[in-house]
User: Fold this.
Amino acid sequence: AGAETVKRAVQLDAASRFQESLVCYQEGIDLLLQVVKATTDEAKKHRYRQKISELTFLSDGKYHKQIRIEENATGFGYEKLFHEYLTETVSEVWVEDPYIRQVHQASRYSLYNFLRFCEMLVKGPCKVKTIHLLTSYDEGSGRSQQMSSLQEIKQSLSNYGVTLNIDFSSSIHDREIRFNNGWMIKIGRGLDYFKKPRGPFSIGYCDLDLRPCRETTVDVFHTKHTKQV
Assistant:
């Protein structure tokens, strides 16, 4: 399986389909790492490690893709935006967003949006086991609601075998999402790039693909992320 995945990665690379080739390279590396762990023959281990080193070099490109979401644009729900980066090898996710806060702010539904993001991770095809959230405390009376909402999300995720680790920072500013397969997505507005729905029974209230967006920029990067064996 690893050899076929690597062969596919090389073909995609040659066709200048860099985003797809990076995914295949990463999957091939992960499969070879599993073989190394299961192999007791030191000579074979050495050959596999050499191959992993070669693949890591090939996959360590300076990849950058930018998506511009226009004001009032639709069709940018989380699954559409993230699905191609959520391969089966994704088991750990980091979310840094200072505004995962109250649900009743005039234009922000950040806690609900974070919940929707978690629902997407639970559905797969990735096999997420751990989600790390770094955000900031809500100011004033909203803090207790923020805390209780996040704890409810944490408890609900645990029912699906997913651990949510929550940390707070008073100085956090940047917004980014990282997956342990090497993909990093930076969204100018974080997870809160949707406009407020017109009402609880309006189209787009439940389906984010139909919800108008606020103007923002999405930058996608790939970084080398392989485990040492």
Remarks:
- The longest strand covers residues 216-222.
